[in-house]
Design goal:
The chain is of the alpha+beta class. The chain is built from 13 helices and 7 strands. It is globular and about 85 Å long.
Length: 361
């Protein structure tokens, strides 16, 4: 067995006679050196994965979780949450937001409780408390899902053997957005953003491709197809798969002119090619959307105009123009046509004319 030249004694290799390689890691636990087999190269293991596992184990040990311990009776939810937030599973763009939610709502209610004392009744008490504090049911659901995600990570890592919860019931929430902008409202929106190049690019691409905000902000110059006059869009909801979007001629020409001096990897929706943060677009557009939200309750998801309304507007007007539902599904990159069927009621062929003349002689 030899030590890895890249990671020193932290990762060690064993070159097998069959040509395969076994990877081992070493670390300190309770002042003892632990020598642990990670796996073989033929199983998809490499030096980087071995050192990532070692770092995660060390992170867990720093939070007081020793995987060699058989009993977790003293393991608190806060310690388990610390493992989750420091792990690779939580290292994504949403991690900071989830950490804030945990600190604000969960730490004080569950942090000092041991995992063994958690049960469904505590969740139901928590749900009632947060509703009394004025949180929306959808927000409470997000918090409960975070609790379940932390527990699930503990099970996956072998820190705990099973969930302390039996069957937690989530609140039923009507999340369907019914609102879309009329032609006049689209014109009004375009008028309000005409002097802001960043918003103009974002809105025009949104209204002509139906892409989600994250997809639009990740379009690079290299994603423009000049032959098909399309742009490649990255669908983060479907594992980052790429699919084509087809901006109208005016929008496409605007894009081409804007990125003329950009590099291949520069972002389209930007002033200088550097990535534009979602928060910047969100803040500006939310203020503009106030004119469309007068008299609408802040928690009225069905009728409040938000950034996602632009995607809904794109699909709704396609349906109004009698676009086949399968084409709308493809343009929105919906995996299941059931997601798209909600727009079918807007089609001229929805049966409205048949009902109108039903009892006329």
């Amino acid at each position: 067995m030899v030590a890895s030249s890249r990671y020193g004694s932290k990762v060690q290799l064993n070159h097998l006679q069959c040509g395969d390689i076994s990877y081992f890691i070493t670390y300190k636990s309770n002042r003892k050196t632990v020598f642990k087999k990670v796996g073989k190269k033929s199983e998809g293991i490499n030096e980087k994965k071995a050192i990532d596992l070692r770092n995660q184990i060390l992170s867990e040990l720093r939070h007081g979780v020793d995987l060699s311990q058989k009993s977790v009776k003293t393991l608190t939810f806060d310690r388990l949450a610390g493992v989750y937030f420091s792990s690779n599973a939580a290292h994504n763009k949403s991690n900071e937001k989830y950490q804030q939610q945990y600190d604000l709502h969960l730490k004080s209610n569950f942090g000092d409780l041991t995992i063994s004392t958690l049960d469904d009744s505590l969740i139901y008490e928590f749900q009632a408390l947060k509703l009394a504090e004025g949180l929306a049911k959808s927000t409470v659901n997000i918090l409960v899902k975070l609790i379940k995600r932390i527990i699930g990570h503990g099970i996956e890592r072998g820190i705990i053997s099973f969930s302390p919860f039996k069957k937690i019931k989530m609140f039923r929430v009507e999340n369907t957005r019914l609102r879309f902008l009329s032609q006049n409202e689209v014109s009004e929106l375009n008028e309000n953003i005409k002097d802001d190049l960043l918003l103009k690019l974002f809105v025009k691409i949104a209204l002509s491709t139906g892409a989600r905000a994250t997809s639009i902000l990740n379009i690079q110059k290299k994603h423009i197809n000049f032959e098909t006059r399309s742009v490649l869009l990255k669908d983060f909801k479907r594992g980052g798969m790429m699919y084509p979007g087809y901006p109208d001629s005016e929008t496409f020409e605007m894009i081409v002119q804007h990125v003329e001096k950009f590099g291949a990897n520069d972002q389209i929706v930007s002033i200088d090619g550097a990535a534009t943060k979602y928060q910047k677009v969100y803040t500006k557009l939310t203020k503009i959307f106030e004119q469309f939200n007068q008299g609408i309750a802040a928690n009225d998801r069905a009728n409040k105009v938000v950034i996602h309304t632009l995607r809904h507007t794109f699909a709704s007007h396609l349906a109004i123009k009698d676009t086949p539902i399968q084409k709308i599904q493809k343009l929105l990159n919906h995996k299941d046509i059931k997601q798209t069927m909600k727009y079918s009621k807007l089609s001229p062929d929805s049966g409205k004319n048949n009902v109108e003349d039903l009892y006329k002689g």
